[in-house]
């Protein structure tokens, strides 16, 4: 049963990730941009600046667990119809986001906890029925 649940979890998570990214992976273009650190409220926050045709766009590039240096060249994925809708194209930050990972793990743990609570103390009739079913199904046909 655990193999089925884990396989289903991976399958659902895969399709969720592929079809919910913004900007959309299938309808977007990829270009390169440069990281610039901007001072906001006495903190330096990285922004990626990129050019499409003659226009310049800037996108916030601060992701947890992703350290970007000033002047670093990064891949950027952007919506061709609206280039201001862009994101850093990396595994951590575009494909995987910490809040989605934590949320999916939390949901899986809640469902596991509910299953444990529901099956922790079965009724005596249920136990007897399960034991009787096990005895009848475990006998060989020609014994």
UniProtKB/TrEMBL annotation:
Source lineage: Bacteria, Pseudomonadati, Bacteroidota, Chitinophagia, Chitinophagales
UniProt keyword Transmembrane present: yes
Keywords: Membrane, Transmembrane, Transmembrane helix
Species name: Hydrotalea sandarakina
UniProt name for this protein: DUF3592 domain-containing protein
Residue intervals passing through the bilayer: 101-118
Keyword Membrane annotated: yes
């Amino acid at each position: 049963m655990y193999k089925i649940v884990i396989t289903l979890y991976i399958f659902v998570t895969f399709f969720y990730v592929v079809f919910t990214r913004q900007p959309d992976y299938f309808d977007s273009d990829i270009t390169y941009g440069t990281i610039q650190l901007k001072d906001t409220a006495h903190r330096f926050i990285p922004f990626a600046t990129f050019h499409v045709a003659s226009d310049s766009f800037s996108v916030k590039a601060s992701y947890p667990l992703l350290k970007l240096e000033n002047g670093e060249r990064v891949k950027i994925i952007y919506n061709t119809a609206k280039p201001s809708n862009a994101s850093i194209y990396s595994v951590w930050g575009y494909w995987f986001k910490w809040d989605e990972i934590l949320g999916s793990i939390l949901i899986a743990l809640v469902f596991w906890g509910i299953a444990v609570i529901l099956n922790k103390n079965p009724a005596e009739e249920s136990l007897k029925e399960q034991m009787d079913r096990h005895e009848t199904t475990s006998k060989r046909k020609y014994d």
